[in-house]
Amino acid sequence: MVSAMRLATLGVSSMKQALGLFRDVMELKVESEGPVPQSLLDAWHIPKGTKAIQAELSCKGYPIGRLRLVQYTPTPSQRVRIDHSAHGKEADTGTDVGIKAIDFYVADPITDAVAKIEKHGYTFRSPPVYHQIADSISEECLFSGPDGVPVLIMVGHRHAATSMRKGAPHGPFSEVPTISIVAGDIEATREFYSELLGLDTITDAETPEQYRNLVNDLTGTPQGTRIHFLMFGKKPEASGKILCVHFFDKTGKVLKDRMKPGHLGFSLLTHDSDDVVDLYERLQAFGVEIVTPPTRIDDDGAPYLMMMVKGPNEEMLEFTQSLGESPQVPQPVQVKKTAPKVKAKKAKAKPAVKKAEKKVAPKKPASKKPASKKKAAPKKAPKKAPKKTKKKPAPPKKKSESKKVAKKKKKA
Description:
Number of helices: 10
Strand content: 25-35%
Structural class: alpha+beta
Distance between the termini: 53 Å
Shape: globular
Number of strands: 16
Order of helices and strands: EHEHEEEHEEEEHEHEEEHEEEHHHH
Radius of gyration: 27 Å
Mean pLDDT: 82
Helix content: 10-25%
Strand order of the largest sheet: 2-3-4-1-13-16-15-14
């Protein structure tokens, strides 16, 4: 249904500073840079008068797990997540629900990458930590990047082919293999990423007790906190995965309306879709919040269709579909007509179905016209009445009216 995450977007206050880390220190390749098209700013709901420039980076040109940096003018004041070193502001906790960190693979030993990053003034939360989730063994540590965005670097000592691209990293630092999100409702998270988006479940396991305290140190949570990891991707693609972390009874507050374009930090996840309109219908029917319905973007290279939605943990996702040179694109209002076709198995689906039923409600008043003929009903057999009503001299406007008259005759 959708691809692995193609782009991870970071809002930055200084493009120069951000490129100083990701391009100069981490040696990611700048694939493109320039102004953000006005139509895309509008689709992102950026205030009028705001300008923006962007830079897209990859590891060796790899198409999945790219990084997009966006600098806005005027500079935003709102941060998506306030990390521990965020210039004196009260920090969000490690268990607050919302987008968490962006990850990169580095070569073993991890201490070489740590020293390289610290040399450029960035602070790590903890020393490198070994931990195990199921059969996967990692060594990781987290630091605050530009504008306080949490960045995690890791060595995959024992990672499956579905988690780490063969030979990674293909540079000092890899493409984005994984981003992490703190999940408040783990069941809603499973439903959204697996059932609605059609992503594959890579990992679904709780951290074993013997490794729990080590992972607590890594995530900045109290000792003994239970942690469940739920990872989604698109097999056989190993990069662009979504890692959702659940902290059970230690789950913190929800970072409401934090993650969105126009804010500083990790602001958008972009996935490709082969049919954005169909995806729109399905998400709308299940009650998912649609921030921007399918919208055509023509001034950003080749034309494409985009849609923006909010996930179950306040994550913001952008779905895109390449249109080639096709000039015909369904308008959002046309899509809504087919929404009732989706079977709403969950409680969330009911509101969407009710809205669709209201659209045909105006046809019902037409049945009032034949009301005066109720007295003639006893002369006809109730079961055959629907067919015989067509022979009545009264003008039956529509077949639906004849059926309704018959029903009234039955009652009589």
